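Hi L.,

You mentioned the student needs an example of a multi-chain input paired with its predicted structure. This one should do, with 234 residues in total across all chains.
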Amino acid sequence: AQKITQTQPGMFVQEKEAVTLDCTYDTSDPSYGLFWYKQPSSGEMIFLIYQGSYDQQNATEGRYSLNFQKARKSANLVISASQLGDSAMYFCAMRETSSNTGKLIFGQGTTLQVKP
Amino acid sequence: GAVVSQHPSWVICKSGTSVKIECRSLDFQATTMFWYRQFPKQSLMLMATSNEGSKATYEQGVEKDKFLINHASLTLSTLTVTSAHPEDSSFYICSALRTSGRSLGEQYFGPGTRLTVT
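Structure written out for the whole complex:
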């Protein structure tokens, strides 16, 4: 069974500094996708970044980058130059391609607080 | 990006009554939608996969007679919480799967519905 683990319930970072949010996964499917979402206090789920299991390069989207280490089954999110508006809950999620359902399984989430 | 709406955004109901939550994909057709439940400061738990024109697929442990899902059109799925009790109070989020060509597509999330049962 697939599993997503986020071991950091809460993280603090100083404004303008970089922060890494950890995510490890477990799957027997050779083809899968990894996602990161941001959920501010309003509750909306905001898509940040995607990494496919066969992608050769780490995904980047603006200040977000994904440190994908396939052998270690980790997909950590790096946020550079943190801003106060980055304070939110962050979820890592995985989708197995073989299931062909499009289902996402989410990790427990990490609450990030950016200090001024 | 694609837009998914939910209605209502929040609802308070009395114990024993039923509540219907709507999920609409506004600018694309979605044969598949998903319903999640989220308790405060916890993860999203998938409740069921809603399939247009067929029965929903429920995750293990989710009571299908309590959480009725109807996906009557390509742009609308509804979740009805029947005989609601205080323990059903939660944040309910839907998502719609937008397929594109050969890929599985992407999930676009609604803004969520906060249900409080008194």
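You could point out the following to them. The first strand of chain B starts at residue 4 and ends at 7. Chain B has a mean pLDDT of 92.

Best wishes,
N.
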